[in-house]
Amino acid sequence: MPSSSGFVSSFFVNISLMLFLMYMASLVYKYAIFRCSARTKEVLFIALAIFAGWGAMHYGVQLSESVRLDMRILPLIVAPMFVRSRLSIVMIGVGIGLARLTFGLQAAAWVGFVNLSLMGVLLAALMQLLESKRFSFAKRMTAVILAMNTWNVLFLSVFGVMPTMEYLSDVVPPTYALSLSYGFLFVFVLREFIVEAGRKEALEQANAKLRDQYRIAEERSSELALAKLALEDTNEQLRRSSQYKTDFLANMSHELRTPLNSMIVFSQLLEENAEARFSPEEVRYAGIIRSSGEQLLSMINDVLDLSRVDAGRMELEFDVQSIAEIVQQLEYVFGSLAGQKGLAFATRVEDAVPEFLRTDGRRLYQILQNLLANALKFTESGEVRLTVGLAGLIHGQAGVREVVFAVEDTGIGIAADKQAYIFEAFRQADGSTSRLYGGSGLGLAISQRFAHMLGGRIEVASEEGRGSRFTLHMPLPAPEGAAAARLPVVPGSR
Question: Which UniProt keywords are given for this protein, alphabetically ordered (predicted)?
Answer without folding.
Answer: ATP-binding, Kinase, Membrane, Nucleotide-binding, Phosphoprotein, Transferase, Transmembrane, Transmembrane helix, Two-component regulatory system
